[in-house]
């Protein structure tokens, strides 16, 4: 726990920030298109704000239209950038995600995809498609959106995919035999951590299969976001004074998305704290399991 506080807290960020290179983020993103899922609050909104400030075109993927439009208006007002667009998509719906990605690819260019949307549902719930909600949102939604957009991204210069994972994945070994969390007592926190482990593995697999695109996953540290407050209220209350701001949590996401320095790193790495380190303690092939998912078959 002490090590976690040292690396993931506000003080950990402030210590690491002393070694940042500000010039890495001094970029003009005019002409480049970015998609941010879960962009109406928290780290997603902070990321969208930073990209818009630098002139990038931002596509906000959100579930709630009212909150999305409010967030868009705030981003436009602060950035003075009108190239901010809202798309209403429920990332837990495989069919919605697939259809959106297909339509988007036909009408827009995309340089950078930021998989930020996620959830931690503490009681086992099923989506309308019969999938456990955490898995459907965090893993399957991310998988479908990314794989559906890869062909379009291969047509642009310097394409990147960044997936916001979590340091929580370090406490989980991949379990491909229970993707729907049907066995044993359901634990939302552990299910979430398992999903985040799956995202890291997917990132490595994508990186090995699609050399034209730079992939990375990352842990944003402990940031004071609405999602953290609602899903882990006790932890939030205990650690509130030590939590990073949303902008601090988004800092590495933005660096990975916009800086020239980021793509000098090998594709497929997991970034945690002030340094990057690939997590290689997994050999299982999650992609094979996902491809066999009935839901994916019905949407391919």
TrEMBL record:
Gene3D superfamilies for this protein: NAD(P)-binding Rossmann-like Domain
Gene this chain is encoded by: DHRS12_3
InterPro entries: NAD(P)-bd_dom_sf, SDR_fam, SDR_member_12
Species classification: Eukaryota, Metazoa, Chordata, Craniata, Vertebrata
Protein name (database record): Dehydrogenase/reductase SDR member 12
Domain of life: Eukaryota
